[in-house]
Sequence to fold (398 residues):
Amino acid sequence: MPAYEYTATDENGIQFSNIYDNIDSPDMLREALAKTGFVLLKARRIKTQAGKVRKITQSEVVTFAYKFAGMYSAGLSIIRCLETLEEQTESRAFKYVISDIRQAVERGSTLKNAFEAHRNLFTDFFVGMLEAGESAGKLGTTLEMSAVYLEKQADLKSKVKSAFTYPIVVGVMCLAIVTCLVIFVVPVFSKLYQQLHVSLPGPTQALVSLSLLVKNWWPAIIAIIAGLVLLFQRCSKNPDMRSRWDNFKLNMPFFAKLNRMVVISRFMRAFAMLASTGVSLIKALDIASMVANNLKVSEIAGQLQQSIERGNSVAGSLQKYDIFPPIIIQLAISGEEAGVLPQMLNKGVDFLDKDIERTVNAMLVKLEPAMTVVMGTIVGFILLGVYLPMFDYMAHLK
Fold:
């Protein structure tokens, strides 16, 4: 998505400038700023030399959080910490973000409100932890916990992504090879068989028809694929369609278990860390539901809030939903009995993260041979279709 450099005013009418990334248009930017009480004055799209905006990476955010926590715990003021971090960062976009946060703090804004304008970058969890740290006088602790959380989530995402890199690369290479065979090899043999007046068997005729379709209608095929991608993006912004999609991800064949564990890991770690800083359980569930980024889990979080407000225990409320693994339920029961619920939930999520890694490895053990069989079948079918008429022709010659 593009990024926009903008100028806006806060509630006191003071102007400030900043960069907002991952936004589609100035209208969406205006709506996003309005939610935090800011009024957009002007905005322009930012481009690099390559025509693309350099995105702020999650690793840069993690590094920022660790440095901020370390400097603040060492006794530096918030403004001095932000000034130092602004000077040290090499990213122009990130420099604008830190500068805007620093200027907001200098104008008297709370740290939570200063970061809230960039919650798309720092996440709702980070902003919630800042609020908890400021109100409880534990800002250094909450900053360090936030850095740990962001690092764990980045590591988890990296492990899952890297584990599936090999199957994706193999699949793309297979698709490229098949496409080249269909476009360049099959037409040559088809022309040869026409000159020899060889009758084409079913597999060969199917290959020839597929080759003609791809060769003559490739613009239409690309347009259809692009249309489907745009349709999916539009549907993903519709709350009802997104809810169905999120629910499907938690129940889809083969990947359902992994998707559930990843979502619950994000949700429970955010809930446990927020609760450990003194945030109320209701508020912690509210922020954790946004961090989970799954409407089905957000719905469950709302039901958990109602259950806890009625006086039920956290463990008893979690037991009503089979989406939460038994290890989380058992440790929640033990944690409530001992009065150390956040600590026990954090341990449960650590176990869950290890299960995620084992599950990914187990899936790859099954996925790689399956992909080999599928690719072998596809390539074998193409070779059979190409050479089968030649075998028939040689038999007739004999």
